[in-house]
Amino acid sequence: MMRKQIVQVILLSLFLTACKSQSQPNNVDPIEKTPVSSEAPAVKPTSEPSSEPISEPQIEPEKLEKVSVLPYGISYYQGDEHMDGIGETNKPANFKRHPYIPYGFYIYESMEEYKLEDGTEWGMDNQRSLFSLFDKEQISVEPNFMNPSLTKYKEYIGSDKDEYGSYYDFFGFHDRGRDLVVRTHYFEEDKNRSLPMFLDVLRSIHYISDPKAFRSGIDFDFPAGTDSDEEEVIKLVKKNVEAMVSKDKAVFRSTLTSSDVNYLDFLIDTPIKYRFTKLEMIEPYDDSTGRRNIRIRYDYLEDGIVKQSGNIFTSLKGKDGKWKIANID
């Protein structure tokens, strides 16, 4: 009898437990949900901001935009022996010729000239600072250093620097079929004084032409025009220029607005010889004036010296529909 009562109690306990489980199936407290913000949470810095300034990025020399030491090339020497001021220092200088190469420079009056067996050098402080010009085959160039003060120049080759602070800087040029090398020498303690002076001297280089070798003529081909009017004007100017070279006054006058005028005869009636070197520009037609301008550069020989200049040939269309040169300036 006792065993039967015990079994009944156990069964009743199991029944009550099952009922309780159905009322709370997971037997886990529900999780309280919190709204999520659409903005990202602020991130706390792991360290305090640095008070040190941010350094600028360093530009590699080969990535620098290069400029030329001689943006206008090497021009002819025109006979001026003295300049009241050259370069940024604007100090007086005298023209000095290289003894073996047909070039020269305006050398500061404060600089000295040192005549050597293989050439001439100019400098200061009893040859402590030197400026020299060579044909390329005369000199060995083996740079071991790139001078930051000079890497912006297209002509700069490099430098030879030693442990004593001695600099040899090299610049290379090609002019009139010749390869040239300019070398400057100075010491670290003289750099701020010597290098700017040497760059001014370098920029003053001129080609010394042999007047006996000068030949008149035309060094370029005239192009075709973009339309019939431009074509006619180009042919007209070509005819005029050829007449200036050959000193043919009749042909020269035939290209002008009136063949009877003589106001431009001074371009023909002169012993000056012309060598036209570059067609610089064919300007667009000016509708407001009816003009077509062509710019031409030329060299000319005068008093044994080759000089450079340029003219603007201005053409107008006549009532007959033909183009003629109205002025040469």
Short description:
By secondary structure, this protein is α+β, with helices and mostly antiparallel strands. The protein is built from four helices and 16 strands.
What can you tell me about this protein's structure?
The protein has two domains: 142 residues, Protein Transport Mog1p, Chain A (3-Layer(aba) Sandwich), CATH 3.40.1000; 112 residues, Nuclear Transport Factor 2, Chain: A, CATH 3.10.450. 18% of the residues lie in helices and 33% in strands. Strands 5-6-7-10-9-8 form a six-stranded antiparallel sheet, covered by helices on one side. A five-stranded mixed sheet has the order 1-11-4-3-2. The N terminus is likely disordered. It is of the alpha+beta class. It is elongated and about 80 Å long. The protein has four helices and 16 strands.
- Average the pLDDT over all residues and give the rounded result: 84
Measured between the Cα atoms of the first and last residue, the distance is 144 Å
Largest sheet: 6 strands, antiparallel
Which regions are unreliable across 5 or more consecutive residues at pLDDT < 50?
1-12, 14-59
Which H/E pattern describes the elements? HEEEEEEEEEEHEEHHEEEE
Q: Tell me the name of the CATH class of the largest domain.
A: Alpha Beta
Q: Under the CATH scheme, which architecture of the largest domain would be assigned?
A: 3-Layer(aba) Sandwich
The strand line-up of the biggest sheet is 5-6-7-10-9-8
Proportion of residues in helical segments: 10-25%
Secondary-structure-derived class: alpha+beta
**What share of residues are in beta strands?**
25-35%
Annotation, overall tally of beta strands: 16
Number of helices: 4
Radius of gyration: 42 Å
Total domain units: 2
